[in-house]
Amino acid sequence: MKQHTSRRRLTAAAALAAATAAAVTGPLLAAPAALAAPAPPAASSDEVLPDLAVTLEDVPSVLDFDSPGDIAYANWEFNRPAWVTLTLTHTASGKQRTISDYAAGTVWSFPLRANSDWWDGLAGYSGEYTWKMTAENEERTGPGVERTGTLTLDRPAKKRVFDSNGFEDVLVRDTAGQLSAYDANQLLFFGANKQLTPTVLSTEWSGYTLTTSTGDLGGTATDDVVGMDADGTLWLHQGEGQKFLPRTKVGTGWRIYNQLIGGSDLNADGRGDLLARDTSGVLWFYASTGHTDMPFKPRVKIGGGWQIYNQITATGDLAGATGGDLVARDAEGVLWLYLGKDDGTFTARRLVGGGWQQFTGLAPIGDMNGDGRVDLYAVGPSGGRYYASANSVNGPFQPATPLSHQLDALGSGTVF
Question: Is this structure's pTM higher than 0.70?
Answer without folding.
Answer: yes
